[in-house]
Model the fold of this input.
Amino acid sequence: MKVPFLDLKASYQELKEKLDAAYHRVMESGRYILGEEVEAFERELAAYCEAKHCIGVGNGLDALHLITCGYDIGLGDEVIVPSNTYIATWLAVSYAGATPVPVEPDVRTFNINPDLIEAAITPKTRAIMPVHLYGHAADMDPINVIAKRHGLKVIEDAAQAHGACYKGRRTGSLGDSAGFSFYPGKNLGAFGDGGAVVTNDGELADKVRALRNYGSRVKYENEAKGFNSRLDEMQAAFLRVKLKFLDEWNDRRRAFAIQYSDQLSDLDLGLPFVPDWAEPVWHLYVIRSRHRDALKAHLEQCGISTVIHYPIPPHRQPCYTEYGERRLRVTEILASEVLSLPISPAMEDADVESVVDAIRMFAGTTNKQF
Ligand SMILES: *Cc1c(COP(=O)(O)O)cnc(C)c1O
Done:
């Protein structure tokens, strides 16, 4: 049985009538940029995140970049970022003119290790940008304590964690501000690009609202050198339909994750670790194996698609040569061992069974340790 990594068409098939109705509503409205759909979605996502403000923007990278600019963080400033993340986290900081300062992950959670943050703070540090990687909330309490002590902003990169909880509270309102992505493959995905800034800080919300629209509050009056980065009406209308299903879809992901963890627990594999304060939304189900590449090839042969998130950490990328030969050991080991198994709301129990069977077959035939 073939198991695709992700079937993006599945959410359209599941909600076809509602999405088609949203499409017709927007087409008939004659309003395609910054209209009622975006305003309504902003209200609905803010409420979902238990936050006061939401601003729809062009994509997740822009959300993080506009927050950084909104805090006037730029040239000469430093922002602490996880070394173990998707490169967009770093690019948002670089794009603002500031310098990303990497901090290694906790090897159990893959998220930024709060114990290592203070040693990375300098007089130039302005913010900490934790990432809720793979849908698991970062350990926010110690991060917020450190930030308060040093007068830093905490910017959540929540691009992989729509609906994830930390000690019962939703991501998006765990720091000073948060950036979301609605890239189609995310837990809440659009049918194109999209993103949002979520915050309780009214001043930042006002700034980002202007920055996304040419730095303008009043038409043709530009108080800041802004950008054009707006969530469009069509994507907002689609996202309003899908937001109502987010919790149900996250529950389905959770059930598959539990199934994987139960059925793989006796193997010598690194399985995801869930601290007792976390309620992850399983954007990805990531295992570790020292024979990762052989395992991936074996699964491919069995018709099971897997992906590596991420094979090259940001500090080893050709675009970040300024980090030179700097070694970040934990991050580099993870990059060589992680493997993401298929997980999505469109899967069925039988798909999980197939993946588990194929992994067990690898263990049997190679007689190898993972
Ligand atoms: C997807 C993602 C982003 C960027 O979102 P885009 O909408 O693709 O720009 C940022 N950070 C993380 C961790 C992501 O996974």
Summary: The chain has twelve helices and 14 strands. Residues 294 and 362 are 9 Å apart (CA to CA). The two ends are 23 Å apart (CA to CA). Residues 59-61, 85-86, 88-89, 131, 157, 159-160, 181, 183, 193, 195 surround pyridoxal-5'-phosphate (CB under 6 Å).
